[in-house]
Amino acid sequence: MADKFDVIVIGAGPGGYVAAIRAAQMGLKAAVVEKWTSEDGKPVFGGTCLNVGCIPSKALLEASHKFVEAKDDFDDMGIQAGDLQMDVKKMIARKDKIVANLTGGVAGLLKGNGVTSIQGTGKVTGANQVEVTDNDGKATSYETENIIIATGSVPVEIPPTPLTEGLIVDSTGALEFQETPKRLGVIGAGIIGLELGSVWCRLGAEVTVLEAMDSFLPMVDTAIAKETQKLLKKQGLDIRLGARVTGSEVKGKEVVVKYTDGNGEQEMTFDKLIVSVGRKPYTKGVVADGLGIELDERGFIHVDDQCRTGVPSVFAIGDCVRGPMLAHKASEEGVVVADIIAGHKAEMNYDAIPNVIYTFPEVAWVGLTEQEAKAKGLNVKVGSFPFAASGRAMANNATDGQAKIVADAETDRVLGMHIVGQHAGEMIAQGVIALEFGSSAEDLALTCYAHPTMSEAVHEAALAVDGHAVHMVNRKKRK
């Protein structure tokens, strides 16, 4: 039997490594188990987010946006940029360097906080026992007072489009293209599909997005979703709704995709095809049978409001449990669970988790949409403000989009905030704080905002809730 710990975390992604560090900071003897290794055999920390998800995709999104901005918008600002070219291989190399820096940084944080790193595949074999199998097949058991399962998720594969190296790829493969494909197909108009489609569309690819659902971004406020769809279409994304993929065939260096829509059976040919139809929890083989830890039919581990499984000493967080599959949600759950294990009272407000789509403009939201609020039987009032009326947005050449606030008509309590616009992902924090503190729309309206800023649109939207917006014609009668 190896060393005994106060807590062992299985998985070193944004949920796992944060939980381990927090536990160590609380004075607990903590260890983290990670099976992902680099080519030289060293453990790779950061999980999907840092390695093949959030961070690398944002590096490509930022680079491609700067390219298209320089190509299409600089001249309007008086900047003569000349004939621009994108070195795709250099862009990918920069992305890889950023990933290496961050994953190395996580390794340093774990070591600096005294967290023991255990390399191998972890499995919960008892209420206080974790078995780790290394790359050579050797299994070692570790005793621990508490266990946190943070094994994350993996991309969903679908039978009609089996992955084919270099041609039919998932979101990971889409981050490794060494040149811009001429014709790119994307299956799935969700967050990942739209972000990856945007990257390669900006660099010159003809991008077609095939979405089986008839509605665009159904989880987003309807007004924001409609505007987003219009803007992405204007940028060149061909988004086809109600398009259900039925099959694919690799012909040489091309992929022929068959799908059905309202007009019957269709067929398109692509040079590359990205499958981005969602993610599923990675929980297979993580828990031994008969322990009392339940998984649902989709593989999610059942937990209570404190992320505790059916075994009191075993917790689960992040993508492998209920709730949105978001890195920041996993991290916050990691902090909460570590605090609970350390004997503190802690809880997480699942009603105040922000979501962001990092297209341009960005789309961000938190809380209830107008439609969700009404479906709950709430009487709501809404205020919105277009960036077209914002001085800073004009100066930034970023007048697309709007900020929208949904409030309870009786209490004035902010129920949700929704933004499509430049830096929406940064501005949405105002909505998160408003929900966290139970703010009213009037609280935001009475707050002094710096001028000129993009955030003034949030201020004006709050004023508009009661018809008091200053910088646009009011459509409501003043109170």
TrEMBL record:
Give the required cofactors. FAD
Gene3D superfamilies given in the database record: 3.30.390.30, FAD/NAD(P)-binding domain
- Which EC number applies? 1.8.1.4
Q: Which UniProt keywords apply?
A: Cytoplasm, Disulfide bond, FAD, Flavoprotein, NAD, Oxidoreductase, Redox-active center
What SUPFAM superfamilies is this protein classified in? FAD/NAD(P)-binding domain, FAD/NAD-linked reductases, dimerisation (C-terminal) domain
Keyword hit for Protein transport: no
Q: How is the cofactor bound?
A: Binds 1 FAD per subunit.
User: What sort of enzyme, by top EC class, is this?
Assistant: oxidoreductase
On the tree of life, the source organism's domain of life is Bacteria
Domain (Pyridine nucleotide-disulphide oxidoreductase dimerisation): residue spans on this chain: 353-462
Q: What Gene Ontology terms describe what this protein does at the molecular function level?
A: dihydrolipoyl dehydrogenase (NADH) activity
Any idea where the FAD/NAD(P)-binding domain is? 5-334
Show the catalytic activity: N(6)-[(R)-dihydrolipoyl]-L-lysyl-[protein] + NAD(+) = N(6)-[(R)-lipoyl]-L-lysyl-[protein] + NADH + H(+)
Major localization class: cytoplasm
| Record-linked InterPro entries | Class-I_Pyr_Nuc-Dis_Oxidored, FAD/NAD-bd_sf, FAD/NAD-binding_dom, FAD/NAD-linked_Rdtase_dimer_sf, Lipoamide_DH, Pyr_nuc-diS_OxRdtase, Pyr_nucl-diS_OxRdtase_dimer, Pyr_OxRdtase_I_AS
Q: Where in the cell is it found?
A: Cytoplasm
Record Pfam families = Pyr_redox_2, Pyr_redox_dim
Q: What else is known?
A: The active site is a redox-active disulfide bond.
Protein family according to the UniProt entry: Belongs to the class-I pyridine nucleotide-disulfide oxidoreductase family.
**Name assigned to this protein:** Dihydrolipoyl dehydrogenase
Question: What gene does this protein come from?
Answer: lpdA
